Every structure is written in C-alpha cells, then in structure tokens.
C-alpha cells in the first residue's frame, strides 16, 4: 500500500508539466495550421504580392531614417491577424501630419523584394471616437 501513495505523489509532481506540454503542443499545432492556410503574414506557402487591403489601425510612430511607420492594425480576413507591425511607405509618399495614438484608415499591400515587404499608403486620420476591433492583448500592448 505504501508504494501506491508514493506513485500518486510522483504523478502529482509531473501532472503540471504534462498539462504545460499538452498546451504547448496544441499552440504549435494551431500556429502551424494558420501558417499553412496563409494566415501568417510571412508564410512561405504564399509568396505572392498581396493587396491592397483597406485597413484601420492606430498610428504608433514614424522612423524617418527607415522610411517606415509603426501601426497596430485590425485583422485582415484571410490574410493576417490583428497585430503591431512596421510598414514601409511607398517611395515618394509623404507621411501626413499624425501623432502617436491617432486612429487611421490606410491601404496595406505587400511586394516580393528581398522577401515579403509590407507597405502602408494613403493614410487618413479617422475621428477620435472611431472604435477599432483589436484583441485585448494588442490593446494593452499599445495602450488603447
């Protein structure tokens, strides 16, 4: 009978590890399936140019040296989930007068250059009361 209780204690010690392992395997499986279906933004399965897509998001900043904006954008159905990302501006396109935290509508597209490169063009300021559909984790990460 004493051996049985020792076995129970061993199972109780490894049970949290088994739960963590199962959760990790499920997460990897779901991510692999999304990438396979082309939902990732850099999936090798879909190396074609994409867009333009009409997108709404929050302007987070501009890196003049790199010629890119940082945006937190809503999901683009069948293309990518909502996320924060750096987007280049097309050559010759000036950035409108925007402040970090401004809500904007814009066109987003990709080109195949040295890999897939995503661009934002035609940025337009949205009314401040515009409600964006961003997941809670992204909202928290960008302070929205």
From TrEMBL:
Region of interest called Disordered, as start-end residue ranges on this chain: 32-52
Basic and acidic residues composition-biased segments: 33-44
Signal peptide range in chain numbering: 1-32
UniProt keyword DNA damage, yes or no: no
UniProt entry tagged with the keyword Signal: yes
Keywords per UniProt: Signal
The protein, known as: Copper-binding protein
Organism: Billgrantia montanilacus
Record lineage: Bacteria, Pseudomonadati, Pseudomonadota, Gammaproteobacteria, Oceanospirillales
């Amino acid at each position: 009978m004493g051996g049985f209780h020792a076995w129970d204690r061993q199972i109780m010690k490894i049970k949290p590890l088994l739960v963590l392992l199962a959760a990790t395997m499920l997460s990897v499986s779901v991510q692999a399936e999304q990438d396979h279906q082309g939902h990732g933004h850099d999936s090798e399965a879909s190396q074609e140019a994409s867009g333009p897509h009409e997108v709404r998001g929050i302007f987070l900043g501009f890196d003049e040296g790199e010629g890119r904006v940082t945006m937190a954008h809503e999901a683009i159905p069948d293309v990518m989930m909502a996320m924060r990302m750096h987007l280049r501006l097309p050559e010759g396109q000036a950035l409108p007068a925007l402040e970090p935290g401004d809500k904007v509508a814009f066109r987003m597209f990709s080109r195949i250059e040295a890999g897939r490169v995503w661009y934002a063009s035609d940025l337009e300021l949205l009314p401040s009361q515009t409600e964006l559909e961003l997941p809670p984790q992204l909202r928290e990460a960008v302070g929205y």
